[in-house]
Design a protein that fits this description.
Number of strands: 0
Distance between the termini: 39 Å
Mean pLDDT: 83
Structural class: mainly alpha
Radius of gyration: 25 Å
Low-confidence stretches: 244-251, 288-292
Order of helices and strands: HHHHHHHHHHHHHH
């Protein structure tokens, strides 16, 4: 068999298109990172974003990390993200597995779960429910309310239903119970799908910022990172009035570079986790789509 390795004009256009597409994705991140390490005056003169590093400065990051609220909020975000993702996968998987079997009422139960993706009671009844459950101003609100995801449960159920039944039957014959079959046979075969759903759940919990304002109004010291950064960014663009400051000693904090520094701080942890799950992500998403 003869393989044609000639570099044709068509291949050149394809490579050029892919390079341009990658540049549109990478360049914004690069400009944000560079701008976050740039002096405020240089950013203002260049319109807010720069491509080539000039006039390096750490003032924005110093302003971010010298605030004690950042570290407390980071702990809250780690708790919400790690605990919420693990419990979400656990509870959703435990519900999806029996619904993937031919049980008597699995169709009815599946429809009830699916119905919640179409209609909801609204934010006011939901707030009253959270208040009656004593979950206001409590970090456990994010763990308990996010245990079951209807859409993710449907993906898991469809995937579990397509797994070879012979493997489960062999485990049952060897004396394993249904829980042991789930954790020793089914879940190891579902790693791509679990990694995909886990990544989506992780990003959603890490990026939450509005819910703490609504359901944790009296616990601002335990707000997650995104909410705290949003508050700090709002304060940075609303400096104190003349009556509130000493004009002789007051130095105007950076605004533009601070804005980009908050973006880097908020995005970097998830960007560090993504490469470890990336090999499962595309495969798991494709499997979920085909099996569904």
């Amino acid at each position: 068999m003869v393989v044609n390795n000639r570099f044709t004009f068509g291949k050149f256009l394809i490579y050029l298109f892919i390079t341009a597409l990658c540049a549109t994705i990478v360049l914004p991140f690069w400009m944000i990172i560079v701008s976050s390490f740039t002096d405020e005056g240089t950013l203002v003169r260049n319109g807010g974003l720069i491509l080539i590093p000039t006039a390096p400065s750490l003032k924005a990051y110093r302003q971010v990390f010298t605030d004690n609220r950042i570290w407390k909020s980071f702990q809250s975000s780690v708790f919400i993200t790690a605990g919420g993702t693990l419990t979400h996968l656990l509870v959703t998987g435990m519900m999806a597995y029996p619904l993937s079997k031919k049980l008597k009422y699995n169709t009815v139960i599946g429809f009830i779960v699916y119905f919640t993706t179409l209609f909801s009671g609204g934010i006011i009844p939901y707030y009253i429910l959270i208040k009656n459950l004593n979950l206001l101003n409590n970090l456990w609100y994010f763990i308990i309310t996010g245990m079951l995801g209807a859409y993710h449960m449907i993906l898991m159920r469809n995937f579990f239903a397509e797994l070879p039944q012979e493997l489960e039957e062999a485990a049952l014959i060897d004396g394993a119970g249904y829980f042991k079959v789930l954790y020793r046979v089914v879940l190891p075969l579902s790693l791509p799908l679990l990694a995909t759903i886990g990544l989506m759940a992780m990003v959603a919990r890490w990026n939450t910022w509005l819910a703490p304002v609504i359901y944790m109004p009296a616990a601002s010291d335990r707000w997650p990172l995104m909410t705290t950064l949003m508050l700090m960014l709002q304060n940075a663009f609303n400096p104190p009035t003349i009556d509130q400051i000493d004009m002789m000693n007051y130095v105007l904090p950076p605004k533009e570079s601070f804005k980009y520094a908050t973006l880097v701080v908020a995005t970097l942890p998830i960007m560090c986790v993504y490469p470890f799950l990336q090999k499962y992500f595309a495969k798991g998403l494709l499997i979920g789509a085909i099996k569904g």
